[in-house]
Design a protein that fits this description.
Strand order of the largest sheet: 1-4-5-6-7-8-9-10
Structural class: alpha/beta
Strand content: 15-25%
Number of strands: 10
CATH architecture: Alpha-Beta Barrel
Order of helices and strands: HHEEEHEHEHEHHEHEHEHEHH
CATH topology: TIM Barrel
CATH superfamily: Aldolase class I
Oligomer: single chain
Shape: globular
Largest sheet: 8 strands, parallel, barrel
Number of helices: 12
Amino acid sequence: MAEFLKKLAESAKKAIDDGTYDIEFTIYHPTVRITDAIRNCRHIPIITEIKFASPSMGTIRQYSDPTRIAREMIDSGAIALSILTQPNMFNGSIDYLVNARLALDVPLLMKDIMISDVQINAARKIGADCILLIASLFNANLCEGSIEGFIDKAHKSDLEVLLEVHTEDEFRQAMSTDADLIGINNRNLDTMKIDIKTTEYILKKCEKTKPVISESGISKAEEIKYLKSVGADAFLVGTGIMQSNNIKDKVKELVIAI
């Protein structure tokens, strides 16, 4: 895992050095909280992800207007959007989130490899409501500070925090932090293999005191039903939707899974 995590951190450092997060404007808006969206959802709470590429899959979808995709996802029942802003390895862009913020009044998660305060500052300026922190990056000492330090900085910027874990130990550690949401990544960052039973394994062994989002490897209504039955509160779905020929229908299929 250390080698891949190091590559992620190096990718983030390059983006910082290239000035990706040097934002000269601020979009003022009241925070729209993912925790509230999950709590108030009357159907299956799906957070849909806009990403055009990933290290494990390469190109996921040929580029098309991200703002149009965002509207289609929300119109079809998604409660929030996760938007890749990391330009290296993920073909993401700050512009994707900025344009979604200007077009939609829904919770926006800035999906990036957060290693520096610079990125947290940028998140607030561009209109994000929530940031992603990856526990294993902190445990490998690849971030410029501690998990709690980053969470505190985010909260002072009125941002929610989704803290991502993959192991039982990381989950227990995460539950003891002030993170708002805990994400269980079903992907093993060492082997890059996905096993959606990871969510069940962790939730069977550990006490849950915060909302839990199951991430990675989800593409079918049956998988949503299963993950809901084992205790997941919400679901982050990216590749399964972005690869679909009909984004609207795919999102609708997932939000009505019962």
